[in-house]
């Protein structure tokens, strides 16, 4: 009996905002690496999520959703990041939401289909569809315009049909030795995830009031004994947003702090002492330099 050679390669996950890209990646790698909230465009960074199994290593590139809105430097940067990640990968997973095919989806599909990798059409949120036979006409509409190598119907949230999708991705990967250590799950630092976990709590609580431009930076990260001491700044654009985040007598910020601390403790598996500040940096989303300064310059496979 011959032993099967290991596989190793890159898969980009593309689709318009809110189709479930982060949920899918988190489900496959069984860890909360990419933040998920019901506000579109919660994902701002490319994250290499690394999934190592007996079959080999699958390296995911999560992308900010491709969208149509024009405008700020941050928006442009988000779109560029998403577009560049479809090149040089072995597989593209193009996600759509079942029964929703919008102009934004079309635009994202164009980017996905320009890739030279294998293309998988992933119909997500199938759990929301009552009459499953309607999916066939829905998919046909997409296939009239775009070509894919495979189609999968899944529910990322309910963990349905994820294994067959994963098998399909592995089939398309080239043979090769792992690039990252077996126990490495991301190329991002703990500090990065800490700031994302805080940002997730902000988005969950203030999704009506705060723009997705709200960002979090870690000012201090110190491990003393068994406790991780973390100081973080929440950057907002306007004074009134600062007031919202702090809340009456600091109540809102306190709750954000408690919830974030619990999430961070779960993520790093240690006790955390978290201190939060809120600062105003006016309209940095329109300032390309400020975007660089806050670390939104991602490079892919340099
Ligand atoms: N019902 C249902 N909801 C889902 C499913 N997958 C994701 N969602 C929800 O859809 C919303 C968006 O999911 P995300 O994973 O953040 O979507 P995304 O594509 O990464 O979004 P961006 O970061 O904005 O690009 C969340 O509220 C998820 O819980 C699914 O299979 N079924």
From TrEMBL:
Residues 7-175 form the Era-type G domain. Residues 206-282 form the KH type-2 domain. CDD domains: Era (cd04163), KH-II_Era (cd22534). Residues 15-22 are annotated as: G1. Residues 41-45 are annotated as: G2. Residues 62-65 are annotated as: G3. It comes from the Bacteria. An essential GTPase that binds both GDP and GTP, with rapid nucleotide exchange. Plays a role in 16S rRNA processing and 30S ribosomal subunit biogenesis and possibly also in cell cycle regulation and energy metabolism. Belongs to the TRAFAC class TrmE-Era-EngA-EngB-Septin-like GTPase superfamily. Era GTPase family. It is a peripheral membrane protein. The gene is era. This is GTPase Era. It is found in: Cytoplasm; Cell membrane. Its main location: cytoplasm. Residues 124-127 are annotated as: G4. Monomer. Keywords: Cell membrane, Cytoplasm, GTP-binding, Membrane, Nucleotide-binding, Ribosome biogenesis, RNA-binding, rRNA-binding. GTP binds at residues 15-22, 62-66, 124-127. Residues 154-156 are annotated as: G5. InterPro entries: G_ERA_dom, GTP-bd, GTPase_Era-like, KH_dom-like_a/b, KH_dom_type_2, KH_sf_prok-type, P-loop_NTPase, Small_GTP-bd.
